[in-house]
Design goal:
There is one protein chain. This protein folds into 2 domains: 2-57 and 271-411, no CATH class; 64-265, no CATH class. The chain is 54% helix and 18% strand. The chain has helices at residues 2-5, 8-20, 22-56, 89-98, 133-136, 149-153, 163-169, 210-216, 236-250, 266-309, 311-319, 324-361, 376-403, 406-411, and strands at 64-69, 87-88, 102-117, 120-129, 140-144, 158-162, 180-183, 186-195, 206-209, 222-223, 225-230, 261-265. The strands form 2 sheets. The chain has a 6-stranded mixed beta barrel with strand order 3-4-9-6-8-7. The protein has a two-stranded antiparallel ribbon with strand order 2-10. The longest helix is centred in the last third of the chain and has 44 residues, at 266-309.
Length: 413
């Protein structure tokens, strides 16, 4: 077989067959070219979207849920419907100690802050936070640092502000670290500037130490909400249910009351998005391979026409001693060669499309498609599929060619 593949006459016949009707050969190859281009392009784009999503969540504990108090919808143990539920610091501690699978529980508080610097001002969201927040929801700091334990212990009036606030209250290239801003008529020293990410739950413009927030706004041990992060091997949905049930017991709320606590399950949302991306990749493979099969069938149909046109030639070769196997082998080689050439052009075209996508949508921190690409393994798999399909489809005209008796072929006009 190898000797046959390296035989000059073999390839001369293949080339002669292709060049007899150039237009038909080109049109035939377009189907396979388009299928492989579609497969490479869509797979690369899907990978780019997945990379963009993963980059946005790279520094965030995705196995997390946010829980806050609302109001009851059912009377229970002497309390009327509509009782306001206020979470306490002790609630966070009890959840951490009693709910299985908990990794971190981060209490948080929020308010609005009217911020003034010189003649510039604006109203922004303000949260009181612990240093632990920077572990479970890593801040992309542009300048300075985040809140530390010293800030908590000494109840310092320091603030970490968003990049948007920095652009609105400071001159371009002005150093903000160490500068004072007034938040609700109180001076705070800027210690850091962070970039706001488009995902990750409730967004904040200004972070100040949790204990400072509690003192300044007279919140005592009340908290606005808590962020609960589960260990990777535990189901965050189950952790959410267990935490809510424990909170209902603590606050004397009916176990079936679904309105008492609000929540946002980031883990479930993350799972839905990753599931969508996997589904899109599966759909891409399905569409790409279906298009490839259609293209390869087109090659098979054209080869059937070619075999019909070459009936007399095949009859002569049979009369001169060519075996049915040799005839079949020649036609299968032609089919595989056509599919491979079209496939290679499709892979090259798909690569150029991915380069164009990366250039148009893959640049900068807010890129929608990051590193749109396919692995070498996928490329080889696509080529293998082409070889297999080309071989199988080539057998149809091959059997057709050898089914005609030599004497009948020689009489064919």
């Amino acid at each position: 077989m190898l000797k046959f593949l390296f035989d000059r006459d073999t390839w001369q016949e293949v080339i002669d067959s292709m060049t007899k009707n150039k237009l038909r050969t080109i049109v035939t190859m377009i189907g396979v070219w388009w299928g492989i281009l579609l497969l490479i392009g869509l797979l690369g784009a899907a990978r780019g979207m997945e990379n963009s999503f993963n980059r946005s969540f790279s520094d965030f504990a995705t196995n997390s849920v946010f829980i806050w108090g609302q109001s009851t919808s059912m009377p229970f143990k002497g309390f009327q419907e509509g009782k306001r539920v206020v979470l306490k610091l002790g609630d966070a501690k009890k959840i951490e100690e009693n709910v299985e699978g908990i990794e971190f529980v981060v209490p948080r508080n929020q308010s609005q802050g009217f911020v003034v610097r010189g003649l510039l001002s604006g109203t922004y969201s303000l949260t009181g936070d612990y240093p632990l927040l920077d572990v479970v929801q890593k801040k992309k700091l542009k300048k300075g640092r985040f809140i530390n334990q010293n800030d908590i212990d000494k109840k310092r009036k320091v603030a970490v502000i968003s990049e948007d606030i920095y652009k609105q209250l400071f001159e371009k290239d002005e150093e903000p670290i160490g500068e004072l801003i007034r938040i609700n008529s109180m001076n705070f020293q800027v210690i850091g500037v962070f970039e706001v990410v488009p995902f990750g739950g409730p967004q904040t413009d200004i972070h100040i130490p949790f204990d400072t927030f509690q003192q300044v706004y007279n919140r005592g041990d009340q908290i606005g909400w808590m962020m609960i992060t589960g260990k990777s091997e535990f189901d965050i949905g189950q952790i959410e249910d267990d935490a809510k049930l424990l909170l209902k017991n603590i606050h004397r709320i009916h176990p079936q009351d679904k309105r008492a606590f609000g929540s946002f399950n980031l883990g479930e949302m993350f799972g839905q998005v990753t599931g969508f991306l996997k589904g899109m990749q599966f759909l891409t493979w399905f569409v790409g391979i279906a298009t490839l099969i259609a293209g390869v069938f087109a090659i098979g149909a054209i080869l059937l026409i070619t075999v019909k046109e070459r009936t007399k030639e095949i009859g002569v070769r049979r009369a001169l001693g060519a075996t049915p196997f040799e005839i079949k082998r020649q036609i299968v080689v032609e089919a595989v060669f056509l599919t491979l050439i079209a496939g290679i052009f499709g892979i090259i075209s798909g690569g150029w499309i991915l380069i164009a996508l990366d250039s148009a949508y893959g640049q900068g921190d807010d890129a929608q498609i990051v590193n749109a690409s396919v692995s070498i393994a996928v490329v080889f798999l696509a080529l293998l599929i082409l070889v297999v399909l080309g071989s199988l489809i080539g057998l149809i005209p091959a059997f057709k060619a050898t089914s005609v008796k030599p004497i009948d072929a020689l009489r064919d006009e």
